[in-house]
Amino acid sequence: MTMSAATAGSPMMSYTKDDFAASPFVAFYEVTRACDLVCKHCRACAQPKRHPNELNTQQSKALLDQFAQFPKKPTLIFTGGDPMKRDDIYDLVRHAADLGIVTAMTPSATPLVTYDALARLRDAGISRLALSLDGADAETHDGFRGVPGSYERTFEILADARRAGITLQINTTITKRNLDQVDAMAELIAANDIVLWSVFLLVPIGRGLAEQRIAPEQYEVLFERLWDQSQKQKYAIKTTEAHHYRRFAIGKADDALAAGHPAGPVNRPIRDRIQRAPLGVNDGKGCMFVSHTGTVYPSGFMALACGRFPKDSIVDVYQNSPIFQALRDPDRLGGKCGVCEYRSICGGSRARAFSLTRDPLAAEPDCVYIPGTKRPNMQL
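Given the sequence above, the corresponding structure tokens read:
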């Protein structure tokens, strides 16, 4: 879940908790695993060349047709690898747009993302572009991405996308190597006219197995910084695979409202800045992921196959897979997540729980909150 719905034509306004069982709020289509970067955290273990069993153009369009068959069409994220490694990506974006699907894309910061390419994506109907920034300086970011110059290239693409009139988002993966740069990154991206900063907390899969995960108690420090930034930045801030930020942010919002504090300089109601928290989107719960070969997962970070397109209907898999159904039931969660008062809007990272325990319903391994106490246990 690396992106909220695009602003124009977004299903966010009409999507409710009652829709979880029938339609995903956001869906990810990994159009390819080909990518020219070698990012240390890569979920997909991306490769330079496209996989021979990757869905072809006709199959991909048939998949998009099925996304349009949900009772409420999800926001669709074209992801990878690098979607720009597919020559037919413009046709796929246009086909989705013609179906009335709001689309977004997460390209890699490579020479493939030219101004002309961005203009073609805009004309094809793309609604949002999300670029990754994983450090406040070139040394940190380029070391993370594995290619010198990717930091500079990211800002060149941001400038070109603004010139092309495409709505922008920044995605950041937090690890021990950049945790101390959170405030600096927040200020750095403020000058780039983005609408959302999506902060991702590492799930140890793919190349992410070798990366340093922050300690559970460090999440609370990070959450404090994100909340402080959310009060002064014009862009929204959300977390991905750190669902317990919702608990933290709601507590902060309630405290501020009780104290009679104003909403802050961005002039929006304080609860409106808690992205998607009232919905409680999670792995398999308002979210689904289809791989480059058509395998269906609850999310891109939960390697728990639930079906395979075109043999299986993705609508049927989302609605009726026992795994998806279990993930949508907060009362089936185990450990402290199962008794937590925030289980419906948080529920912990199901992907991280599965990765570390092999039980998708186990308690969130990186949460220090003590249910019912309104306080975290920092004595770990």
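The longest strand covers residues 167-174. Try to locate this feature in the token string yourself.
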